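Worked Example 4.2. Read the sequence first, then its structure tokens.
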Amino acid sequence: MAGQLQGKSALVTGGAGGIGRATAVLFAREGASVTIIDLDQEAGREVVNVVSGAGGRAIFECADVTCAADCKRVVERSVRKFGGIDVLFNNAGIIRRASVVEISEEDWDAVMAVNVKSIFLMCREVIPVMTRAKGGSIINTASGWGLAGGARAAAYCASKGAVVLMTKAMAIDHGRHNIRVNSICPGDTDTAMLRREARQLGEDEEGFLAESAKRPLGRMGRAEEIAQAALYLASDAASFVTGTALVVDGGGLAASG
């Protein structure tokens, strides 16, 4: 049976680890040719080996998604290699846990550059490709904290709120080109990034993870579960879905009002 993305080409930023890795592997398993973008060359090439070993097609591009020239280069290579880009998953992201009086200007700028500017840069390159192909799907990783605030995460909340509304604006602008633009708002997911948060806050890792599991389903999410949400938005099953912020958080925001 053909996969849900059979014959399509997908580009995944932040694809060497966590949610990005899980999504790249899933997309390939569902038939997509995948371009994996990350700064971590060793991990990125390992993902390509996993995909290739399972019979899929993938390439790795080492790139800084906050750099316009890098974004242009990786999009051009993906188009040359796979003939186009049907799916763009803007997943690269960082977090700096601090209030506005604690965070440095350098860290604020870094969070906004990776979490927001990179989406602008990648979409600026990919949307013309999708327009010429008469359609495509763009998925942006936002966060539950893009819909509700969190303590000591001012820059991160600001960036993810921007992702949610930028997604909606792009859905309005490019719907006429048959380009669907959606965001995913994950809750705490068991990744290396979540564990780094504990260290940033100076908290015990196990206690931090236990607190992260306090939600109606009683556990953290798994990267593979967020990847399934990305697959849905990338596939024809979501053909009438655009401009939405899909919450995948085990019920964490259910009581947020």
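Now turn to a second chain, presented in exactly the same format:
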Amino acid sequence: MNPDAATIAAGAPIEVDLTPVAEGQDIKVFWRGKPIYISHRTKKQIEEAQQAPLSSLKDPEADSARVKAGHDQWLVVIGICTHLGCIPIAHEGNYDGFFCPCHGSQYDSSGRIRQGPAPANLAVPPYTFVSDTKIQIG
């Protein structure tokens, strides 16, 4: 009794099993027709994101506000550049985060805009951990 594809596309929540995602790897899923990047961040990526001075950010937001408490290793963001809606590439750019090749916006490993024309951070969709290895988006 699972919802049909049209219901899912309209915004029904989806569950994602994180078990196969290795540290340092990203996966892309779709929710409401939007690409969602799920990143299993390394210790280095987490430390860099936590240590970035908020005063250096175009859209200041602490890393802790962009991840779930106790699950710092997982970043979940909507993979749409906030400049003109292009799809950035994961693990590219100067900040080991996301790079939008269309106009040069660069996001860090927390999905925060660090360089380029994008005015805001990558959006974080509504999601919850239903277990240590599974999330529900939506």
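Notes for the reader: The chain has one domain: 15-137. The beta strands are 14-17, 26-31, 34-40, 74-78, 89-92, 97-99, 106-107, 113-115, 127-131, 134-137.
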